[in-house]
Amino acid sequence: MGHRSFNRLRLGVAAALKLTHENRACLIDDISSTGARLRIDRPLAPGQSLVLSFHELTLFSTVMWVRGGECGLRFDQPLELEDMQGMLWIKENRALYERICKAGPAMDWAEGIGEY
Fewer CB within 10 Å, N or C, the chain? Predict the structure, then answer.
């Protein structure tokens, strides 16, 4: 096994995978600045390129391994420190984060922006 040089942050938050032919839901179990471990409902192929979308992040990634309902991604570019700090904020403020996520679409609708 390889050596990790960055700490992983356990998250357990929903995200989306964008593949060339479809979009899929996933759950980010944990994340570091260089990659993530996801829970997925259908297997992906090791070496497959995809985009992981979470909140305002768009992370170009490669599938490194797949085991059952899990897979590991390596990001093409490491996350910035501010992005990792944002992930830590989400972990430490889970209830507030979930409230903000639920309120976001309603606020967009009230302001006349976003999708209907």
Answer: N
Phi first, then psi: give them for residue 115, nearest 5 degrees: -90, 150
User: What is the tally of structural domains in the chain?
Assistant: 1
Cα 13 → chain centroid = 7
Q: What is the mean pLDDT of each run of 10 residues along the chain (116 residues)?
A: 64 92 95 96 95 92 97 96 89 84 62 53
pTM of the model: 0.79
Going by their DSSP bridges, the two strands 70-75 and 9-18 should be labelled as: unpaired
Residue 9 near residue 88, CB atoms below 8 Å: yes
Q: What is the CATH number of the domain that holds 74?
A: 2.40.10.220
Domain span at 31: 9-111
